[in-house]
């Protein structure tokens, strides 16, 4: 459906903001986002999901919600991760369109009207694509480039300079939250996988206003593992490839040993044996590691534990169910 300005008067825009230890910057972030939303010509709500912060992020949110009724929020019982926070926000959001944006304002809120404009003209998913990462260090840019390129090639989805800064039509939100029951989630990938008309809007990553980034190298590695394992079985094919490589290598070693025996040459075999065992052992351990990652994800799925548990809410009429 293509909306006109007249029909937008009766439409609701939800903005979902995952937050973790954002006590120092949450008030400023909400103020900036609220100022932008008042210019969009739509009714709006802001949903902040406190991902088990150890500071007073939720206390600040509660204060802000008493000043603005359209600010709502919930707090997890512990830190479940950004993917769980995004899922919780999407589950609660009532909007005809939902924008997901980071609390540190590195995703520029001023682009929200442009996203709405693309949505008005029929886009069901509007992707914020990073044009420049000048605020990131060289190592951060390198690891992001490697991650996006690997997942794009192996998973068959476009992750080039992707981000969690998106606008989703209600039909896309319902597809992600209702039609996809998996618990191991990767939001960027799912929003691309569901299809629907996509539009990309480039943006330059802004400087973080307050506080420090929350992602550790280990956390990013865990996210990358989840993304690759849940979106592609290509690593399992690596196991098969390693098996063939080992077989070919073993064939040449056996041929050399047999040739030496026929020619009457003494073959000690010590160096060759050690070298062969090291290679085969390495291949076996790598293969077991890859298979183990898939088994671990399967184990997490069949336990059917909720993706998050809600401790408390503010501004939400009915306490949403844990999911």
Topology:
Blueprint lengths: L4 H4 L3 E8 L6 H12 L5 E8 L6 H11 L3 E6 L5 H11 L4 E4 L11 H9 L4 E8 L5 H18 L10 E4 H10 L7 H7 L4 E7 L12 H15 L2 H29 L7 H34 L6 E5 L9
Parallel strand pairs: 1-2, 1-4, 2-3, 5-7
Antiparallel strand pairs: 3-8, 4-6, 5-6
Helix pairs in contact: 6-9, 10-11
Protein model, in words:
With 323 residues, the protein is α/β, with parallel strands linked by helices. The chain folds into two domains: 5-216 and 306-314, Spore Coat Polysaccharide Biosynthesis Protein SpsA, Chain A (Alpha-Beta Complex), CATH 3.90.550; 234-303. 50% of the residues lie in helices and 15% in strands. It contains eleven helices and eight strands. α6 packs parallel to α9 and α10 (234-262) packs antiparallel against α11. It starts with a helix and ends in a 9-residue tail after the last strand.
Report the total helices. 11
Name of the CATH superfamily of the largest domain: Spore Coat Polysaccharide Biosynthesis Protein SpsA, Chain A
What fold name goes in the CATH topology slot of the largest domain? Spore Coat Polysaccharide Biosynthesis Protein SpsA, Chain A
Query: Mean pLDDT, as a whole number?
Result: 78
Task: Please summarize the sheet with the most strands.
Answer: 8 strands, mixed
Helix content: 40-55%
Supply Rg.
Answer: 25 Å
Give helix and strand order, one letter per element, not per position: HEHEHEHEHEHEHHEHHHE
Architecture of the largest domain in CATH?
Alpha-Beta Complex
């Amino acid at each position: 459906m293509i909306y006109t300005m007249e029909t937008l008067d009766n439409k609701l825009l939800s903005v979902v903001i995952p937050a973790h230890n954002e006590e120092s910057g949450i008030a400023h972030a909400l103020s900036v986002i609220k100022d932008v939303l008042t210019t969009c010509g739509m009714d709006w709500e802001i949903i902040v999901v406190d991902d088990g912060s150890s500071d007073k992020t939720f206390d600040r949110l509660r204060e802000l919600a008493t000043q603005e009724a359209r600010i709502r929020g919930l707090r997890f019982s512990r830190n479940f991760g950004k993917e769980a926070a995004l899922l919780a926000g999407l589950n609660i959001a009532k909007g005809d369109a939902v924008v997901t944006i980071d609390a540190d304002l590195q995703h520029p809120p001023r682009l929200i009207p442009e996203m709405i404009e693309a949505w008005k003209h029929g886009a069901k998913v509007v992707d914020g694509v990073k044009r420049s990462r000048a605020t990131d260090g060289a190592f951060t840019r390198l690891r992001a480039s490697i991650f996006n390129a690997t997942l794009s090639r192996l998973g068959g989805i476009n992750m080039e300079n992707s981000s969690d800064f998106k606008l989703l039509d209600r039909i896309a939100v319902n597809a992600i939250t209702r039609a996809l029951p998996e618990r191991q989630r990767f939001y960027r990938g799912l929003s691309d996988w569901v299809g629907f008309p996509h539009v990309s809007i480039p943006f330059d990553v802004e400087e973080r206003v307050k506080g420090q980034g929350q992602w550790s190298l280990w956390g990013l590695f865990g996210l990358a593992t989840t993304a690759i394992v849940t979106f592609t079985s290509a690593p399992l094919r690596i196991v098969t490839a390693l098996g063939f490589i080992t077989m070919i290598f073993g064939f040449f070693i056996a041929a050399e040993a047999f040739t030496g025996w026929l020619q009457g040459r003494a073959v000690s075999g010590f160096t060759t044996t050690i070298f062969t065992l090291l290679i085969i052992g390495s291949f076996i351990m790598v293969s077991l590691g890859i298979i183990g990652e898939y088994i671990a994800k399967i184990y997490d799925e069949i336990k059917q534990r909720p993706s998050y548990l809600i401790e408390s809410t503010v501004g939400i009429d009915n306490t949403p169910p844990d999911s």
